[in-house]
Specification:
29% of the residues lie in helices and 26% in strands. It is α+β, with helices and mostly antiparallel strands. Strands 1, 2, 3, 4 and 7 form a 5-stranded antiparallel β-sheet that branches. It has a 5-stranded antiparallel β-sheet with strand order 6-5-8-9-10, with helices on one face. It is elongated, with a radius of gyration of 35 Å. The relative contact order is 0.13.
């Protein structure tokens, strides 16, 4: 048996169900689809410029973030050193220089550097300008550590009152670590323009 195909014909003698576009692309339809090489290159250049701008903005703020971390870390470690001084019954000293800070324990008339554990020597993350004042008097912070610690956590629970200021030469941010004699250590951010 032969089957008969049925189709609907339009008035212009073409099949009415056929779409108006061709399934096989002709030479003109290829030119109108996709992006040109110039358009792709322009978008690539724009994305590269935006990525470079974001990278530079994030890198510029990195120094200030590191400075804030340094201030928080030194405040936490001084507080921890004071707790350890009370628990061990031995004074713990804090020495600072331009490169970092270290802790030492009082052993009779001498100070022994603590090399391991939480109170190991540390370096500043960002190369800050370091200013230390004790009892309202400025204490010199040089390239080398001093022979004796500039600050001390006493076994009685007291602490040398001090103010440590960390700042970057090219930024307005200033971070301050202040300690009272009762052992309270507080970190604060100060607008560097109002120094």
């Amino acid at each position: 048996m032969a089957r008969r195909r049925s189709s609907i014909w339009a008035a212009d003698n073409t099949a009415a169900l056929d779409p108006p576009w061709s399934l096989v692309p002709g030479p003109w339809s290829l030119l109108s689809t996709g992006f040109s090489l110039i358009e792709i290159l322009v978008v690539t250049v724009i994305l590269a410029v935006v990525a470079a701008t974001v990278t530079l903005a994030v890198a510029g703020a990195g120094g200030e973030r590191q400075l804030a971390r340094d201030a928080d870390r030194v405040a936490a470690l001084v507080g921890y050193a004071c707790e350890q001084a009370e628990l061990s019954g031995r004074d713990i000293g804090v020495s600072l220089n331009r490169a970092g800070y270290r802790f030492s324990r009082s052993e009779h008339a001498d100070w022994q550097l603590l090399r391991e554990g939480e109170l190991r020597p540390r370096k500043w993350g960002a190369n800050p300008l370091v200013t230390l004042t004790r009892d309202g008097n400025r204490v010199g912070v040089g390239d080398e550590f001093p022979d004796k610690p500039q600050l001390a956590c006493f076994s009685s629970g007291e602490l040398t009152a001090f103010r440590l200021e960390l700042s970057l030469p090219d930024a307005a941010a200033l971070y301050r670590v202040e300690a009272t004699q009762n052992g309270e250590v507080v970190t604060s951010s100060v607008d560097g323009r109002g120094r």
